[in-house]
Amino acid sequence: MKEHKITGLSCGHCALKLEEQIQQLPGGERAKVQFNSSKIVLDEHMDMDRVRSILSTENVRFESDGEHTGPNWLMIGLYVSVASFIAALITEHMLNITYVSIVFYAIATISSGYSTFLKGLRNLTKLKFDINTLMTVALVGAVAIGEWKEAALVAILFGINELLESYGMEKARRSMESLLKVAPKEALLLRDGKTEVISIEELAVDDVVLVKTGQKIPSDGVVVYGKSSVNEAAITGESLPVEKEDGETVFGGSINNEGVLHVKISKTYNQSALSKILALVQEAQESKTPTELFINRFANYYTPIIMVVSALVMLVPPLLLNEPWGEWFYQGLAVLIVGCPCALILSSPIAILSGITVNARNGILIKGGAYLEQLGKINIIAFDKTGTLTLGEPHVVAEKAFHPDFYKVAYAIEKSSSHPLAKAVVAKCREVGAEEVEADEMTTISGQGITAVVDHKTYRLGNEKIIGSTEVSEDVKSVVDSFKEEGNTIVLVASDTEILGVFAIADEIRKESPDIISLLHEKGIKETVMLTGDHPIVAEKVAKKTGVSSFLGGLLPEDKVEKVRSLKKHGKVAMIGDGINDAPALATADLGIAMGKGTDSAIETADIVLMQDHLGKLPDAVQVSRKVNTIIKWNIGLSLGLKLLALLLTIPGWLTLWIAILSDMGATILVTLNSLTVLLHNRK
């Protein structure tokens, strides 16, 4: 199957009909006309001339054919039409030259309505009924009964409607396409001290590339030379630059802000985080939501029903109530126009596409419209603790010095260690400005800690077992017990005769976590639950500081799954985790959200990925999804409500052709503009 870009596709209902026709061709069974992204997916062996012929019935063509660069005939036709209509009004009402006004009305009707008329005639020969067929019948009918002004006004309004429909969808598509343009095209390959420009598709693992100031890093890799700040907005949505130097990972698509970097490629471009993100975003824009699927099914029954109603309006009053044929034939034509399903079909896709685009710009990867819709319905969020509400890195939360050499000795013993607890101690010692001295004769005692000589004296650092026979005063015992009661890990520093001090170490709570939890509750999330494998005392401490509604500690992965299942009995549940050890719970929830920063496992596991690797944009994503759901409901209500109102006007016989087209046009304009307001979310 091969993907082709097409232009001129502005009607969702028409796209469905085109797809049905192309699927009837030999080899066309799996063909897809993708309205949201304006693409068509075809078998490579299909007869392209026959496909072109079908597309041309809706003025749709392949972008590669180059014709789209020509004049906008719809716009030109509208200008001519409006000018002719004004001329007709002047000659009719000011100069009283009726036959000249009819000529101008005819020019106005033809200028705006000729393409619709030709499509409608073709459809009639195939007994195919869509908006073009309905409009053609209405125009012919209006002219037949001498309503030249009505015919011209209907043609003009329908032309404006088509133009606005096209503009609305193109605006949403362009927003998505601008997002997809972040992918780099070329790389500067370093080989034998020389540079060579190659396509990113030619890059291989272990190639070293040169990235100059302002250039995009071509694919995921590791810095092997240079130091610079890098803008990772393409991956994470964060605009603040990140400092990079030797040994640090970089993502394809991120921009080198300053200096020169040599990057060793670790993944070919099609395996890079950016490539996967862009592929998933493109897939997401074509995935149908439950609401869209319902609307499309409904539209298939809706148009035939409208045609039956139109026939009844034309026939019942004259036959049963002896009403005039001409008047009710006219009313029936107006009902046909009201029957256009375009506004209804547009109710969802522009809003969904806009919502996915806005979130993707914020570094929130939503894998499909269905997941965006589902996020808007979530009222319970379950969080893993480590790496989600906390940083997943130990740090010193409290310490007590009983001797002036406490920090100096701890720094000397721990500064060469790579153990996470040692890093936490070193960070604290540097923070307090500890004196830097060297430790000698360091010995690791398994399960206890380290002994070392500092300033010709032996010291011990580790857990309570490392103390040995050193006497512990009541003051020290009291401090240690209080630190332990809070669920902290204890690191003691002691000499042979006394305790120098104690560090209390715990996983650091993310600074933004309390505010995020508070914001989520404000946005309508009724319950936030923390699920963790950590000790209940630790869990309680984190729960209090972050403000979650409830918590459960000491859970195994299977326990988390059971808890998520029980939560689902009370509402729609999203589970947020790191995408690796939380995979079963993520899969069990109504919606799985992973903390990612470009990790393959997170991108592949969850329905939604927070590429920033923190919860900062989550309340925003919830707000956008709820806004999208609300807009879709309003759109459906507006499109059906305006049509129902127009149909009710047939009862007293007040429905005119121009009121009918205005009801359809009004619905389409309101639906389109309403949906595009989602794109304004980023600009607040």
From TrEMBL:
Q: Where in the cell is it found?
A: Cell membrane
InterPro entries given in the database record? ATPase_P-typ_cyto_dom_N, ATPase_P-typ_P_site, ATPase_P-typ_TM_dom_sf, ATPase_P-typ_transduc_dom_A_sf, ATPase_P-type_domA, Cation_Transport_ATPase_IB, HAD-like_sf, HAD_sf
Q: Does the keyword Mitochondrion apply?
A: no
Give start and end of each P-type ATPase A domain: 182-282
UniProt-listed CDD domains: HMA
For membrane topology, the record states: Multi-pass membrane protein
Q: Which Gene3D superfamilies match?
A: 3.30.70.100, Calcium-transporting ATPase, cytoplasmic domain N, Calcium-transporting ATPase, cytoplasmic transduction domain A, HAD superfamily/HAD-like
UniProt KW keywords: ATP-binding, Cadmium, Cell membrane, Ion transport, Membrane, Metal-binding, Nucleotide-binding, Phosphoprotein, Translocase, Transmembrane, Transmembrane helix, Transport
TM segments?
73-91, 97-117, 301-321, 333-358, 634-651, 657-680
Q: Per the record, what are the reactions this protein catalyses?
A: Cd(2+)(in) + ATP + H2O = Cd(2+)(out) + ADP + phosphate + H(+)
Entry annotated with the keyword Zinc-finger: no
Family listed: Belongs to the cation transport ATPase (P-type) (TC 3.A.3) family. Type IB subfamily.
State the PANTHER family in the record: CADMIUM/ZINC-TRANSPORTING ATPASE HMA2-RELATED (PTHR48085), CADMIUM_ZINC-TRANSPORTING ATPASE HMA4-RELATED (PTHR48085:SF5)
Q: What is this protein called?
A: Cd(2+)-exporting ATPase
Give the organism, scientific name. Answer: Fictibacillus norfolkensis
- Which gene name belongs to this protein? cadA
